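ARCHIVE ENTRY
Sequence with per-residue tokens
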Amino acid sequence: RRAKPFESWERKRTARIYRNARNFTLHPDPARATEDVVRYTYMDPLYAIGSIPGGLVQPREQHSWDVTWISDHPEEPATFFLMHPYSDPEALRPFMPHSADLALRNTGLHDPYFGTVTKIVGGSPFEDVFQYKNTLIALYDIGEISRFPVITGFMPLDLQSLDIDSTETQWITINTGDVYIGMYPLAPCRIIDGSIGRHYFSSHKRNGVIIHVAGRNVAGSYEQFRKRLRGTVVDTSRFAADLHVRYTTPDGDKLVFTYGGERSVNDRTPSMQDELLFDSPLLHSRRGSGILTLRGRSGDVVLDMKAREIREET
């Protein structure tokens, strides 16, 4: 196991966009619709929480964010996420050279879950995500769509406890054993037991959640985690007007996030440098260099694509 947490940044290309429908947006921030996709992951010895900035990157095989942890029962799912199950025919138009209805029919032949409200993968142009280390804010502003104007989610049944503080702080806390998850819904929701897990459901179009994760090795007991979480500051005074949220984490970091706009941590905007392709304690590569460095305890291994060689560096 890794000894301590670390941050990982990766830059990916978007799916090929053939065309765009009139008045159709791929992301709440139009500038991000044409950018590469930056994937950010906070890796802890006990869990991982990762995300991309949201938006419609790929209509079928996309998870904008999730939390995954080490389970005592590997055969059971150990993941938690929320999403907008967007499956309007217009979702496929930018990515497929067909009419919207024909694209939906052809996609349904290969993926029967694409057109269902219980789908567990897929992107949405009405989702905006901001993450800093083990804290994440996901905001949703669903417009006038014909199918599934709801927010859904999944969490496994194999949990030690799930507690809802509905009368005071509104925090929902989850105890998986070694990993604790806090969720602050920004709109009313329901949690329903299913056959293989619990399902989150909220029918409010202007929506969102704040997620904070911690391991027992850092947070102490589950009750200590809940106490610290309930003492954090959530400012939603501007949420109804312009989907603006301010949150001070248990570690004292101040996050500010507006749907389709401002995102900052302690008054600074975190971002991956444009010239980097990979950046973490394990991988490093600059765009266009053709060189990927794999970092290890005893030294580095360099894959040099231009020189067509593999070399070791102490």
In short: The first helix runs from residue 100 to 110. The first strand starts at residue 6 and ends at 12.
